[in-house]
Amino acid sequence: MKSGKEIGGLAKLVLHAYVNEVCLDRSMKAKFLALDPMADALPQYKIMPLLSLCKRYGKPMLWLLSVLKFVILPVLVVAALVNLVMAFASVLPFWRRQVKDLPPLVCLPNTAHLKLFHYLFDDFDTRVKFECRRPWAMLRYLDARDYLRALLTVWRVIWYILLYQRHHGVRRQDLIFHAVDVLPFVCYSLFLIKLSEAGRQVVTDCNLQRWDYVATHLMADCSIIQHAYIHPDLDFSHTFGPVDCLFVFDQEFETVFSRYYQFKRTDIIRPKLTLADMGSDKQVLFLASSAPFLNTEIDFLERVKQKFDFFIVVKLHPRHVYDESVTRLVSLADCVAEPAVFPDCHLQVSYDSFLGYEYKALGKKVLFLKDECSVRRFMERP
């Protein structure tokens, strides 16, 4: 373990992780929502879903956010007392698990989707341990002392947020909203400390977020799997810790990642997608949609349908909130793919979706709509 041994040090680390999360939201807001006046009225927290909700529900949603700004921290102060209950539970012999029983390399997925870990490990199914089954399983590896530390650390983080003065565009209200998961996040940090003390290594698919921020600072050996497109122009208030191995889909991302991480080595991930036949005699064009670029996607498909005769498949991003114009996009498609389906295609299209690099690695033709020159050449072809 490299830092965070004391309660104050760990609380500072957690606070810095939240500050960086606000920086990430602020960058996304400037990149995608700079011209939307309503975005300025919102906390810098999950800014795109919040904006969609505010446009849908109007002032009641803004009033709710104003109330939550004053309610969240008091609720967290009381909720943190659940750590006392967990401290008693941790002394029960049937409850406790030992870190020493975990494998030398521990996988820490960022979500319930384990696709990237299956790419990385051919034998991943045999590696599946607690961390892949349910998000709260790490609690069984903490002892009574850890839960007392968690209680005090949560309270210290809340205190630091109350004292926080606006800096580099990060406001106290932004941190308040990000702190809604401070209880599990502190437990996650304490679990990392125990892994580090036991000499374990971790690999995570979290990129540029709070989870890998604390992992790179608390673990002596932390590796990262690229899970999305990385923008080269993000600014963070606090530096991420060192990384052992960076797993990327294309070597072009090494330069981008080097802006944010110091890594000892890199390796290339080979995707193992199972592509589904769309059952059409026509060439298939598969568009992976992203809500912020909906108008660009609609314009592109309208031009494609005027000039070419593709079987068009559209897949909506499962975690994006779309506005009503998505019905226009869907109407341009011959088929709308389910979230779990990866269509076989002649051409894969997206604005800048990371899925494009996975299809590229499979030998498929790929077109990124952000590359206007490539789009122009495509549209000018006979």
TrEMBL record:
<keyword id="KW-0812">Transmembrane</keyword>
<keyword id="KW-0472">Membrane</keyword>
<feature type="transmembrane region" description="Helical">
    <location>
        <begin position="147"/>
        <end position="163"/>
    </location>
</feature>
<feature type="transmembrane region" description="Helical">
    <location>
        <begin position="62"/>
        <end position="95"/>
    </location>
</feature>
<keyword id="KW-1133">Transmembrane helix</keyword>
<protein>
    <recommendedName>
        <fullName>Acyltransferase</fullName>
    </recommendedName>
</protein>
